Amino acid sequence: MRNRIFLKAMGAFVLVIAAATLTLDISIRHTWENTLRRDSERLLVQNAQGFALRVQNDHQHSLQQMATEEAQITETRVTIIARDGVVLADSEADPKTMENHAGRPEIAAALSGKVGSSTRLSHTVGVEFLYLAVPSGDKIVRLAYPLASIQQHIADIRSTLVRATILALLLALVLAVAIAEVISRRLRRIVRFAEQVAAGDLSARIAETSGDEIAQVAMALDRTARRLEENFAAVRESRSELEALLNSMTDGVIAVSPDMKVRWANHAIAGIVHQQVRIGAPVIEVLRHPDFLATLGAALKSKHRESAIAASLSGHRSFLVNAEPLPDGGVVSVLHDISAVERVEKTRRDFIANVSHELRTPLTSIRGYAETLIESDGLLNDSAREFLQVIRRNAERMGRLTEDLLVLARVESGEEKLDLRPHLARQLLAESAASMQENARAADVELTVESIPDWSVMADGYAVHQVFGNLISNALRYAQSGRKIIIGAHEQTGGIEFFVRDFGPGIASEHLPRIFERFYRVDKARSRESGGTGLGLAIVKHIVLNHGGAVRVESSVGHGTTFFFLLPKA
Ligand code: ADP
Question: 287: Cβ below 6 Å to ligand 1?
């Protein structure tokens, strides 16, 4: 680089000096030549006029003598010519041998009484002369000055100019080397600074103090580096704060790159996987759990948050895995230990199941004795019989409640494995309608099945019948006034959606979001009176969820209600 800058500066200097010298040479030489010529001419005129006066008045010396003397004094060639052009005397040649000069331009001018001048090559001497002729009485005197002496002068000036140019070039060379050295030293500092910054050393500075453009660039770069250093420090600080925060969490946090390599993990992760997590290791080596890996993969692919429950991810501990895509294509996952919650939930379910189970026998006994007493003749009076009827009804209701609680506990726990196999949707509908047909007829309601194409669903037949049973019972119980129930199915994204539609009173919209909650009833008194437990729809929801499906409801007050449940296609 130094060479290049040096060469450029040198080239520029040489060019400027050469241009200046050339301009000077042309303009000065021209002016100088003209001045010299004019001065010589003026001197020659003065000399010629003086000599013309002498030729007119000096009668003592011969013309030849006077010409020779004048030539010596003025360092010119002197010629005296008669008005007819005959040469009378000449300081350098024999006049007799010289031709008639009447035709020479300077002589012709002098003959007409003026000062004649001409520049040309002399035939006699063979050099270029400046001729000057003036009239002198009946004669003409002519002085010829050899231009060679003027040209010699000019050559002298030119050689001085060339010497000065060479000297100037040498000086320019020294100056160029010095300037190039200074500039390149400053530029080298900037380059070194840039290399330090590129290597990550943001504390590097150029520290230029002068005020020229290079210094301005250096100062701007210093400012940039200072700002970068400050920003970097702030980023580092917030990063370490974030790290401290994430490390203080009990939840495991792990970030992976798009190629599923560990980018970062908090301390809790090491506790979950029982080993030190190596940054850059494939995540599969750190945590080989199918649900966890599938959730990460899904979030990477979908670019949306994904979550799943990973059972027995660490020993017997289950975790809720949340995977959030990162802007650069990776994914960060938070592992929340849900073992304790699951344990509490299981305890609750077990307790309900146990209580229900324990209540079964005494309830059966109460109902049995009440029925026996009611049916015994003559033993009781009417009011006692009525009381016993109430006891029996309530025992029956409690029986239904315990049965439903048991079923709900079972389906909620998901412990009872579903017997999933392909079923023709049409067949499921037909069987469910057949088993409920008797109840419909008793309630004076028409139960019909909509004809559907040959779709198959993956389902537990017994569980699906229970779902239909609950939904149709509800329709018979709450929408009997509609006189009609239609069941059917249609295709949906994700599977086949079954429905149970009635034309009863409908459900007000404010109840719809909570209708599938356990013990949620629109009209408590009516539900109880009709033998409802408030658990039917909750059981429906859990059975469908266990199939990987979904439930929903549409209702319009005064027009009827439709319950939908989606089951996966076989
Ligand atoms: P229940 O044992 O009380 O029937 P469910 O969970 O089966 O409990 O139903 C919850 C509530 O939803 C019922 O109490 C009833 O008010 C309402 N409901 C259910 N099905 C219908 C329907 N087809 N039409 C109107 N209301 C309904």
Answer: no
